[in-house]
Amino acid sequence: MSTDTLTEITRSLVECEPDRTAELTQEALENGEEPLAIINQGLVPGMEIVGEKFQTGEYFLPQMVIAANAMQQAMALLEPELHARQQVSESAGTVVIGTVKGDIHEIGKSLVATMMSANGFRVHDVGVDVAPAVFIDRVQETRADLLGLSALLTTTMTAQREVIQAVEEAGIRDQVKVMVGGAPVTQQWADTIGADGYAEDVVAAVQLAKRLLG
Amino acid sequence: MRPQFSVLSDDLIEQIITEGFELLMDPGVRVHNDEALELLADAGADVDFQSQIAYIPQDIVEQALETAPSEFYLYDLGGEPVVHYGGDSVQFDPGSAAITVLDSETEKQRAPVTADFVKFVKLVETLPQLDAQSTALICTDVPEEIGDLYRLYLALLYMRKPIVTGAFRKDTWWTMKDLLVAVAGSEEALAERPIAIFDVCPSPPLLWSDLTCQNMIDCARYGIPSELVSMPLAGATAPVTVAGAVVQHTAECMSGVTICQLSSEGAPIVWGGSPAAFDMREGTTPMGAVGTWMIDASYTEVGKALNLPTHAYLGMSDAKVVDAQCGLESAGGALLAALAGVNMVSGAGMMDFESCQSYEKLVIDAEIIGMAKRLIAGVEARDKPIALDLMRKLEHRADYLGELHTAKWFSKEQYIPSSVIDRGSLDAWEKKGRKTAWDRARDRVPELLASYEPSTISDDLRNELRAITLQAARTFGMEELPPLPED
Which CATH code of 3.40.50.280, 3.90.550.10, 3.40.50.10490, 3.30.70.1120 fits the domain covering A93-213? Predict the structure, then answer.
């Protein structure tokens, strides 16, 4: 019975039925299923299948994002239960991510945030047009392992350098890895400004994050 | 609303049709086939058997245009009607009868052999954008005399889609008919559910050769569809004006429909062609010229005005390698054909006028065809209200990617290309090795071939097809057929 519900959660994620995912998660909790079992045997396998289907070209970004949102929604239901049991879900790492000062481009950054979140990272999205001090505060507050900086314009990518300098000045450069991305950004730019990594698209960004924290 | 393209005014169409009728009386049409001349004479045409010229009165032609079906289907080997000739249906098949194949390694043209055509047929099966096969390559490892039927034999072993074909001789047509009957089960079954259509080509100006005329008559008698391929060369073998070339095309096709219907009333026949705006510098027959496309679009409109199914050779290129010219010419012609509502557009894969087939060009052309089909599918509201509810729900948030509305519609609204089309970032493209469309197409060919599912025809049928083909081969001095490629 409970295995059926977990299998059903996996299926609902894979088949893009976010409301069903939430419903089933609630149902599983009410039936006394362990939150960690729901995560590890219901949600995570679903996201893995969606990820595979994306890699093979069968799925596209909309299915990925819908599944990721459904996963986040289910996690919101599970967090209080985990907390009550003094348990924590396995985390791939804590990430602060945002678009740098002067730049209001959101989509690429949000996509990376969503995908990271679906891949087990705890993601704190600080939004767009974010000043270096805000990044620093949030990294310190969350004890983040990773800082993601997005810039979509050649005129704003220089702000990525300013954030890295601010991280150094705050004395936390050895505590947090910094990755950069965005249309004009290249590996060469990442090297120039002393970032730890650069990824050209959302899939590469998740892989890079796992590698940096691995 | 379906986007459509029109080049002729109603008045111009009427004038072209009128002049077509008049040309068939003066100077008449040359018919180098006794059976056709007899049929025309019996129907009341004035026939000069000495000079082999028929003067066909308008009423005989009108009667034929009346009895020719306005639509029919071609069937796949599973018996499903998958190609609709008629109305504004648009379907695509590869350009046929190439005399060379573009070698994937050397990028040079070479003589095709059995393995090349088998590979080509398999590739066409794996490309959903293509609706039909064609006898696309002429294999040079068999005697020239059986070049036509040998292509059909090979295709029948590997295909499921219907096929556009043609005979090079009068006698080989019979062998090709036997091959098709073997697959269909009987002559009646073949007529009821045709799996092939034969191209029949008048010669400009106003000539029916013995061979092509006989092929057309024989097809009609067996209920096998035929496709008129009239090919005025504007400025060389036809008037240089677009409208003038179309007048010639009209007269030739009218005479073809007439001979076909006199052979067998109600036999399926298609108003088609492969005209060209003659190149005044090189003396060649460009398929990528805008003037060529305009002749095609114009005669298609005339064919539709006469309520007949239509065909055109479009979506080809005159380029010798798969380069920018190749892409722009193929895309221009294919898009125009789709907008003009041509029922069967032949040309995918073809380059160097109509000489050379390329696997790589074929997979690139499949993307063009996918886009062309998307274009004519048109714009729809999809939802009512179209966007109000959705946009009010999201307010000013840019979160459409995660909406079920997006997941529901994106693959219907967008044509999603294969890896042949590069839409990644500059860095992603560089990481993958800075590959050009040619490189990506070359990578894709073996991927597609690996997905080919073998034909399910029985061993008995294979043996029968082989026996029919072998008998024809032996007539022309070839004792054994070339071995089929393994796997």
Answer: 3.40.50.280
CA distance linking residue A114 with residue A166, whole number of Å: 26
Backbone phi, then psi, for B163, in 5-degree steps? -135, 140
* pLDDT given at position A2: 59
> In CATH, what number does A2-84 get?
1.10.1240.10
Average pLDDT, chain A: 93
- Residue A114 contacts B where some CB pair is shorter than 8 Å: yes
| Residue B256 belongs to some domain of the structure | yes
Three-state SS at B159 = coil
pLDDT digits (tens, 9 = 90+) for B406-417: 999 999 999 999
Residue with tokens 């390559």: B137
Tell me the residue ranges of DSSP E strands in chain A: 93-99, 121-125, 146-150, 177-181, 197-198
User: Between these two residues, B426 and B53, which has the higher pLDDT value?
Assistant: B53
Interface-testing mutation among B401, B434, B440, with chain A (most A C-beta atoms within 10 A): B401
**Can you give the pLDDT at residue B421?**
97
CB distance B445 to B126 below 8 Å: no
Domain ranges in chain A are 2-84, 93-213
Residue B350: which domain range?
A: 1-379+417-487
The Cα–Cα gap between B311 and B314 comes to 9
Q: A86: burial class by Cβ within 10 Å (0-12, 13-18, 19+)?
A: exposed
Q: Are A138 and A126 in contact (CB under 8 A)?
A: yes
DSSP codes of every residue in A98-110: EEBTT----HHHH
Q: Who among B404, B410, B427 is closest to A200 (CB)? A: B427
Q: How far is B401 from chain A (nearest CA, A)?
A: 5
Domain count, chain B: 1
Enumerate the H helices of B397-458 as residue ranges: 404-413, 426-431, 437-450
Quote the pLDDT of residue A115.
Answer: 86
Please report, for the domain that includes residue B240, its CATH number. 3.20.20.480
Q: Does residue B205 belong to any structural domain of this protein?
A: yes
* Interface test with chain A among B425, B426, B440, B451, by most A beta carbons within 10 Å: B425
pLDDT band of B454, cuts 50, 70, 90:
very high
User: In this structure, is residue B409 part of a structural domain?
Assistant: no
Per-residue pLDDT, B398: 84
Note the pTM of the prediction, 2 decimals: 0.92
Cβ atoms of residues B287 and B245 within 8 Å: no
* CA–CA distance, B351 with B99 (Å, rounded to integer): 11
Residue A1 has pLDDT above 50, yes or no: no
Percent of chain B scoring above 90 in pLDDT: 97
Three-state DSSP at B467 gives: helix
Residue A61 at interface with chain B, using a CB cutoff of 8 Å: yes
Asked if residue B8 belongs to a domain, the reply is yes
Q: How confident is the model at residue B93 (pLDDT cuts 50, 70, 90)?
A: very high
ipTM of the prediction greater than 0.85, yes or no: no
Whether cis (ω within 30° of 0) applies to the bond prior to B205 is yes
B433 touches chain A (CB under 8 A): no
Cα–Cα distance, B390 to B397 (Å, whole number): 11
